[in-house]
Design brief:
This protein is of the alpha+beta class and 75 residues long. It is 33% helix and 17% strand. It has 1 helix and 2 strands; from the N terminus they run H-E-E. Strands 1-2 form a two-stranded antiparallel ribbon. 0% of the residues are buried.
Length: 75
């Protein structure tokens, strides 16, 4: 038997064994539910997200009504 064919067969068998081991390990695990917000938020007309802050409880979104353009300056 040519060496190339033996290598292909060996790799195929190795792949099958790896898939069986992975399937066996993952078979008993149940996927947990992902946390979601109870009330999704939507921006009203004219509102923009002006900042995002990360806290220990989650992510805070800071919403404002001002629109930045070339004539708007922070003083």
């Amino acid at each position: 038997m040519p060496i190339g064919l033996l290598v292909v067969i060996y790799l195929f068998v190795l792949y099958c064994v790896a898939m069986l081991v992975l399937w066996h390990c993952l078979r008993g695990q149940k996927q947990g539910s992902t946390p979601s917000t109870a009330v999704p938020f939507a921006l009203r007309e004219g509102q923009t997200i002006v900042g995002i802050g990360e806290t220990t409880q989650g992510i805070d979104f800071y919403i404002g009504d001002s629109v930045r353009d070339e004539n708007y300056y922070d003083l």
